[in-house]
From TrEMBL, chain A:
Residues 1-78 form the 2Fe-2S ferredoxin-type domain. Pfam families: Fer2 (PF00111), Fer2_2 (PF01799). InterPro entries: 2Fe-2S-bd, 2Fe-2S-bd_dom_sf, 2Fe-2S_ferredoxin-like_sf, 2Fe-2S_ferredoxin-type, 2Fe2S_fd_BS, Aldehyde_Oxdr_Iron-Sulfur, Beta-grasp_dom_sf. GO terms for molecular function: 2 iron, 2 sulfur cluster binding; metal ion binding; oxidoreductase activity, acting on the aldehyde or oxo group of donors. The lineage of its organism: Bacteria, Pseudomonadati, Pseudomonadota, Alphaproteobacteria, Rhodobacterales. Keywords: 2Fe-2S, Iron, Iron-sulfur, Metal-binding, Oxidoreductase. This is Xanthine dehydrogenase YagT iron-sulfur-binding subunit. CDD domains: fer2 (cd00207).
UniProtKB/TrEMBL annotation, chain B:
It comes from the Bacteria. Residues 44-149 form the Aldehyde oxidase/xanthine dehydrogenase a/b hammerhead domain. Gene3D superfamilies: Aldehyde oxidase/xanthine dehydrogenase, a/b hammerhead, Aldehyde oxidase/xanthine dehydrogenase, molybdopterin binding domain. SMART domains: Ald_Xan_dh_C. This is Xanthine dehydrogenase YagR molybdenum-binding subunit. InterPro entries: Ald_Oxase/Xan_DH_a/b (IPR000674), Ald_Oxase/Xan_DH_a/b_sf (IPR036856), Ald_Oxase/xanthine_DH-like (IPR016208), AldOxase/xan_DH_MoCoBD1 (IPR008274), AldOxase/xan_DH_MoCoBD2 (IPR046867), AldOxase/xan_DH_Mopterin-bd_sf (IPR037165). GO terms for molecular function: iron ion binding; oxidoreductase activity. Pfam families: Ald_Xan_dh_C (PF01315), MoCoBD_1 (PF02738), MoCoBD_2 (PF20256).
Amino acid sequence: MDVTLTVNGTPHVLEIDDPRVSLLDALRQRLDLTGTKKGCDHGQCGACTVIVNGRRINSCLTLAVMHEGDEITTIEGIGTPGDLAPLQQAFIRHDGFQCGYCTPGQIMSATAMLEELRQGWPSQVTGDLGSPALSDDEIRERMSGNLCRCSCYPNIVDAIREVAGKAAEGAA
Amino acid sequence: MPEPIELKLDHRMDLPDQEDLLDRMAQGVISTPMDRPEGPLKVSGTASYADEDHPPGTAYGWFVRANIAKGWVTGLNTKELQTMPGVLAVIRDDRMIRNPAQGGDAKSPHQGPAEIFYKGQPIALVVAETFEQARDAGLAARAEYKDSSHKAVILPAQAKYEEPRSKQSSQGNLDRAMKKAAFSVDVEYDTPSMSHAAMEPHAAVAWWEDGRLTLRGSYQMLNSNAQELADALGVSVKKVRILSRYVGGGFGSKLGIGHEGVGAAIAAQKLGRPVAIALHRRQVFEATHRRSETRQRVRLCCDADGHLTGIGHEAWVSNLPGEDFSEPVTQATSFTWAGENREIGHYIGRLNLTGAGSMRAPGEAVGVPVTDAAMDELSEAAGIDPVEFRLRNIPETDPSTGKPFSSNRLADCIRIGAERFGWSERPKVPGSRREGEWLIGFGMSAIIRVNMLGDSTARVTLRPDGTALVETDMTDIGTGSYSVLTQIAAEMLGLPPERVTTVLGDSDLPPSIGSGGSRGAASSGSSVMLAARALRGKLAERMGCDEEELTLKDGTVIAGNRQRDLADVLAGDSLQGTGTIRKGKAEDGHRQSSWGAEFCEVAVSSVTGEVHVRRLSGVFAAGRILNAKTARSQCMGGMIFGIGQALHEEVFHDARDGSFMNRDLAEYHVPVNLDVPHMDIELLMDDRDPFANPMQAKGIGELALCGTAGAIVNAIANATGHRFRSFPVTLDKVLEKLG
Ligand code: FES
Ligand code: FES
């Protein structure tokens, strides 16, 4: 069957002949958007994180055919090597990665997470449920679904805090 | 482009380096915290890993794996599988392997998948048009067996242990020393099977063109990997090219050629089209390697002043029958601490479990935390502060051989670390500091990892426009090879790093030792330095001066009061230097090691038994630091690996058949972001080791792991008043003791 996915603003009509194709494999193998990584194919590592209709999801845990008409953002839509987004630049400056395999997922997750925080969604570590603050523990908790075996966590937190802090200053 | 002018420089490391050449260069990029040059590709998802950029027409493979722990495959429902949609082939081939090669084997691992040695061993390969079809058919496979599982040895307690002569040693009389000592400890610790759990699953894409194989793979040591693959396939190594431009983490799990590489190559040959195989996460756990479980007995004794008089360290480890590798648990014990009576024991059991191989810092990663925890126990028994106790027992020379150290910065690391951490605030009485439900404690550990050099060659080309190209088959598995090799060439040639391009991860390029054993940066870096030095010689000749009088900076060539543009001196020529570093006698006469000390504060919940690492700090000495940023990240990664080892990581083997009961990332717990505090990491930037190599740099990729778990369990003991001798220290174990 034909499925229309809008990926990074561009509509793609995909002929999905096999309902078992995950959104992750559709992106990687059929659209050749290999920036989204497969770490476990199980919903356990976060390497495959993409943003679908504004929310971050594990693309390995959902089937391509379920996304007719959906707006999908992948790492390729965040910034390119010649035109990197602030978060991507901050990851480089703070060495928020080593092997780089978890990195697209981290950046997608961080992008969506900051928006969740801005909208006031509480998390497990939120004290006052009404107004979660941009604390290191909030960042750590909200990024804990993205494993990094190279273990760049403290640098990832530094990169996110810097970008989020600047954005908050700009808004104030 | 005209033919390049070729230059060569070979160096065997027989004598200590006297020149400290990198310190005499003018560019000033070496050691700086330069951003990774490949960073923009990695953060934008454009760096290309093994299972990407599939050639047109790629088919997909999925391994069928053994469902029993020991026996033979006698049949498979091949006919049925062949009728399934999309299935192209069901392959059983005697060239397929039992387990991946060990690092540096350079020959095929054990072949012949029909004989089963462990549950989960690949026995056949299904190839289909799509990934989904291959997986479906693979899961529908049913094998028939001649089952001899009753003869399988699963539990270490059932194993007969080999005692290889060369791995035992003894001096003085430890038994007597233990009896006579003022204080002694005789303790047993254990560490479980562990898994590397690199984020990128093992994957390979293979295709043949004119009888030559190209394999995109995720491997760490391409020169030996190509030999392993060629040997397995029965072809000349010239017929094999492996590409590993980006490797999504290795930690030792990608040191040797694996099932995916051999399987994809065979399938691509049979089908005459490209074949991709990416191991599923469960297959990564069960069909690559694990770190062996260990049981360790440590005996330590000292006099009334806290001077060690004896040290004994025995280790029981395991592997598959016929594997040469065994976790070298006692590797650092021979030289770290003083004591004239010494005994080392190393025993290897043969188990029908997933093979054991090198995982980050094989040996010290599990050996140092245990000896260090025992040191902590003895310091407590002797009533001496743990820092002071360790400082008293740093030997002047290697106590096993009497050889001098090439450099020993352990005391410096301990002193600086104690000061930075605020060690003087440590609770003097274990179990005495409490914040509500939380028990607070401090702990520390010495950090030790041996240093090695491996033969490596690199090529550096200066192009007529004054840019440089660095080429070697070295890999960057997150370690920072792209960064440091770029910096070394830039420093030697006086170029801004933007004018240097580094190309790695292609077995057709000059051979390096690859990534493993913390040798990669120092070994391949030295070869780049030598190649660049050959070019400097030529430039000096053109300037009519000695190389020592030559200054290269920002693309200009300076000799005395003459200054010319580099491109001008090149005069349209390309200069191509090939540099080779070889191991030599310098390592025979001196004990080489990297050094460190780590300090930790934990909070232990008296209600739930949870352990929180509140602070973790480390000081490290590893000779010249090539890039302060990537080196720091390697240390951070090692320390966090150690948090996992201390508190979370354990493979549970089913006692009946050895299979992994927690074979995925939800059940095998690696640290996550919230487990990790901010860290204080200090690198001794002034350190140099002339015996190591011409750069005077030593290994740092594994160092920080080698003791971390010791610092953490020592802190837990300080917090709770209880010693935990079975890793990892999970809540159940804590609650049992806290009562
Ligand atoms: S690949 Fe989707 S969560 Fe791991
Ligand atoms: S950078 Fe390697 S797993 Fe995160």
